[in-house]
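Data card: per-record layout.
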Amino acid sequence: MRRTLDTEPKHKNMKGKKIWIILVALIVIMQLIPSGRPDVVKENKDDLLVNNAIPDSVAYFLRTACYDCHSNESVYLWYSYVAPVSWLVARDVRLGKEELNFSTWESNDKMKKAKLLDDIVDEVSDGGMPMVIYPLMHPEAKLKKADRQLLVDWAESFAEALFE
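The structure for this 164-residue chain is written out next.
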């Protein structure tokens, strides 16, 4: 004889409810764990864009595709406050700023700047930056081939100008 939904044992239904209650409790508890998100600082006296004559088109792409992870001026959207995504965002921003921080650009010597610009050329031209997942939530950060070339050309010429 087949059971119908009406004749299912009550303990099976209670087990499902307990699982949902535990899952919801875990999600709520996760929100209490700090993400370690880096602070936002808007006044950056050593910032690349503040101290250099960067073409507007290049500055636009740097701001929209790079600055959230590679400056002190990160803009944290709603999902940056919801664990476990908040932990991933905080990690990516911390690591991004360790590699390259446009907000501290002027504190680097010429050789370091040239190395960073060379890294920009490599990462942008091969599609490594911005990270593939970033433009999904930031469509303005999606770089077309021509946009990538613009950034590469700028980085190469800016690096050359450092030593003139």
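Known properties of this structure: The helical segments are 10-30, 48-51, 56-65, 85-99, 110-125, 134-137, 145-162. The mean pLDDT is 91.

See the next section for split statistics.
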